[in-house]
Write a structure and sequence with these properties.
Number of strands of chain A: 2
Shape of chain A: globular
Distance between the termini of chain B: 30 Å
Helix content of chain B: 40-55%
Largest sheet of chain B: 5 strands, mixed
Low-confidence stretches of chain A: none
Largest interface: A-B, 46 and 43 residues
Number of helices of chain A: 13
Order of helices and strands of chain A: HEEHHHHHHHHHHHH
Oligomer: heterodimer
Distance between the termini of chain A: 35 Å
Radius of gyration of chain B: 22 Å
Number of strands of chain B: 16
Structural class of chain B: alpha/beta
Low-confidence stretches of chain B: 1-6, 15-35
Number of helices of chain B: 17
Shape of chain B: globular
Helix content of chain A: over 70%
Strand content of chain A: under 5%
Mean pLDDT of chain A: 93
Chain lengths: 274, 418
């Protein structure tokens, strides 16, 4: 209980209080009421840019991640004895430190990196993966999917293993083809796992930080700047702790609303076998 | 105690928990007293230690000071240079923080709340600050009080690869160099996979700001950001155009540190680079080909040096400031600064020690640095300079690729950093 109060409740209350101050960390704090929130909503164009970037990242990353993870999990489920081996292979990036992954990807994606050097062998002049504002966010999403897909593969794989073979056999006897069995039996039975993966992946994607911090620094321009990166910079690089706390609360409210929306649709979309 | 102070302390305590700053700080050293009666913190320094080269430099200070006082010691801790300006603020708010911190003339404004004025200690210890480089003392003076004792005073210079210049038929620049000649030389040098110039994405690390300085255009006027003065905008646009239009340099990526263009120069893939004299030993010994230095080019050819330099300061949180000051004075004597300059290549902040730095360096190179030291002015900034640097690094890619003008970028940065 004491730990809960110290590490959960106190920081929450503290950040809420700090968000009402203009506080440069080492200067005297000045109470400004809701000014930080007003500025965030009406006076800071960068906030809306980073919010848009974060939403784009969250939607793209979640959709690509879930579709790819479902496809791979299904493939591995039917692979037989090689399944566990590949499952481990896909899971390795999840347990590898994000910083190490990001640095390796940076080496691959720089203008004269591994990918463009490979393309050069075929006479193709590779693009600036991290410096072109049209491509930079896509590069971050690709790297993030590579990093995070293994987790969803494990969860969905466990869900697939939980589906009774009798159900699939009954569907087969009833004349259902492979696609029908997948959409009419497997997906509904897998919906609790998919729901869990969707909620967790969206929450995680709103917190994206390491990839833009290490690969692009939020650039070029603000094209890969995300809420958490912007929050971190305001708090620790620009000495605007009050504004950073307001950003943290804005992020909290957005994630809470999206999660609440998901849970409100749970009964309609998720099939619990009870 | 004022209400603001009480609120500040409460908020400080809460924020440490709320924002989990512990994860951003280096391991704290335990407090306590040494056998000599001086607190451990008074002989501990928080500084940037990016690599072994940095550590060796700090050790050179300790080794040189030990010659006069064998009992002297200085413990070191700190992150890389790039992380330093963020982490120093949180490190000093934690317990057992070192008393001595490293700062720069360009960061003195930004760190003013973390450091204490040294004027009284300078006076009571009979220190003659006039022996230190005036530009550095000016840069380290905030609101009329001195915030650090400088150990170096380094005017940014232009490095060139003599072999590549000779192969391209380009005459080596000297103590006079015009921007028009510079542009023509870079074009001549850009061929066969070699670029004329290597460019980092940062603001202070150039090439735009050092060239603006060379022309007498500065980013701060009367203590306020002045990034959109026409001279500075033109000079930054000139730097952008060298990359975007003339294509004499590879456009940098935001996440490139200064090491990326330095590697391009050292590997012979770029013929010139604008960098600090603190890189002299590295660039002259590790570059493929012989290296010379020249002044940063200016419109007239006469160059005003952008003096960057660092200093030792005392943390406001230090409980034993007098002991910390005495330790700082042990590592900033002309003898120590000269010895470090000779051993590590940093240009001493004390003029009488410059001869130790000059040592066996070519006379032409020494002449360039001495000329820039004479004409030089400190890079004076504002408390929001870290935001300027961070945003410029993030946005400069658009300038170097020609999709945004210097006017647009510098206006955006100035508005956000107000």
């Amino acid at each position: 209980m004491l730990g809960f109060l110290i590490f959960i409740v106190l920081p929450l209350v503290a950040s809420l209080v700090i968000s009402l101050f203009d506080w440069p960390l080492f200067g005297a704090p000045k109470f400004v009421g809701l000014d930080n929130y007003v500025r965030l909503l009406t006076g800071d164009p960068v906030f809306w840019t980073v919010l848009g970037n974060t939403l784009f990242f969250a939607v793209s990353y979640t959709v690509v991640n879930l579709i790819a993870a479902l496809a791979v999990a299904t493939w591995l489920h039917n692979l037989g004895s090689w399944g566990p081996f590949f499952r481990v292979l896909f899971f390795i990036p999840v347990v590898t430190p994000m910083v190490a992954n990001a640095l390796v990807w940076r080496l691959m994606l720089t203008d004269d990196g591994v990918i463009n050097s490979f393309l050069a062998n075929f006479g193709i002049h590779g693009p600036s993966w991290l410096s072109d504002s049209q491509l930079a966010m896509g590069s971050l999403i690709a790297m993030s999917v590579w990093q995070g897909i293994g987790y969803n593969i494990i969860v969905l794989g466990a869900g697939l293993s939980g589906i009774s073979p009798n159900l699939l056999e009954a569907a087969r006897i009833d004349g259902a083809g492979a696609w029908q069995r997948f959409f009419r039996v497997v997906l509904p039975m897998l919906s609790p796992s998919l729901f869990f993966c969707t909620v967790m992946t969206i929450i995680g994607s709103f917190k994206v930080f390491t990839q833009p911090y290490l690969l692009t620094l939020g650039g070029p321009g603000d094209s890969t700047n995300t809420i958490v990166l912007y929050l971190y910079r305001n708090g620790f690089s620009f000495d605007k702790l009050g504004y950073a706390s307001a950003l943290a609360w804005a992020l909290f409210v957005i994630v809470m609303l999206i999660t609440a929306l998901q849970f409100s649709q749970q009964k309609r979309l998720v099939n619990y076998d009870n | 105690m004022s209400t603001n102070r009480v609120t500040g302390k409460l908020l400080t305590a809460a924020a440490v928990a709320a924002l989990a700053v512990g994860s951003l700080t280096a391991c704290g050293s335990s407090s306590g007293s040494s056998s000599s009666g001086e607190s451990k913190e008074a002989s501990a320094m928080y500084t940037w230690i990016t690599n072994e080269n940095d550590r060796a430099q700090w050790q050179a200070f300790v080794d040189a000071a030990k010659k006069k006082d064998p009992a002297f010691n200085l413990t070191l801790e700190g992150p890389s240079f790039n992380d330093y300006w963020t982490k120093v603020k949180t490190r000093l708010s934690s317990s057992g923080a070192p008393c001595i911190i490293t700062t720069q003339a360009a960061r003195a404004q930004e760190l003013k709340d973390l450091t204490v004025p040294l004027d009284d200690m300078v006076k009571s210890n009979n220190i003659d600050v006039s022996m230190y480089n005036k530009a550095m003392i000016d840069g380290l003076t905030v609101d009329g009080s001195l915030r650090g004792i400088p150990y170096d005073a380094e005017p940014v210079v232009l490095y060139y690869n003599k072999d590549l210049l000779a192969a391209a038929g380009v005459a080596p620049p000297t103590t006079k160099y015009t921007t028009s000649q510079f542009a023509a030389d870079l074009k001549a040098l850009t061929k066969g996979g070699v670029m004329g110039l290597a460019v980092p994405p940062g603001f202070g690390s150039g090439p735009g700001l050092p060239m603006a300085f060379a022309n007498g255009n500065e980013p701060v006027k009367d203590g306020k950001l002045d990034l959109t003065n026409q001279g500075l905008v033109n000079d930054q646009q000139f730097a952008f155009d060298l990359v975007a239009k003339a294509q004499v340099a590879n456009p940098p990526q935001a996440s490139d540190g200064t090491d990326v263009p330095e590697q391009q120069f050292m590997s012979g893939k770029a013929a010139m680079i604008i960098d600090g004299p603190w890189m002299y030993d590295t660039l002259t010994t590790k570059t493929q080909g012989k290296v010379g230095i020249a002044v940063v080019p200016s419109t007239s050819g006469e160059s005003i040096g952008m003096i960057q330099g660092s200093a030792f300061a005392i943390a406001a949180s230090c409980k034993d400031k007098e002991a910390a000051f005495k330790n700082i004075m042990k590592i900033t004597t002309p003898e120590v600064i000269g010895a470090v300059g000779a051993a590590r290549g940093t240009v001493p902040s004390v003029e009488s020690a410059v001869k130790d730095w000059a040592g066996t360096k070519p006379a032409a190179d020494v002449a360039v640095v001495q000329a820039l030291l004479k004409s030089g002015r400190p890079l004076v900034t504002t408390p929001s300079w870290n935001q300027v640097e961070t945003n410029f690094t993030q946005y400069s890619g658009e300038g170097f690729r020609g999709s945004k003008t210097a006017q647009e970028l510098l206006s955006t940065i100035m508005n956000s950093a107000k």
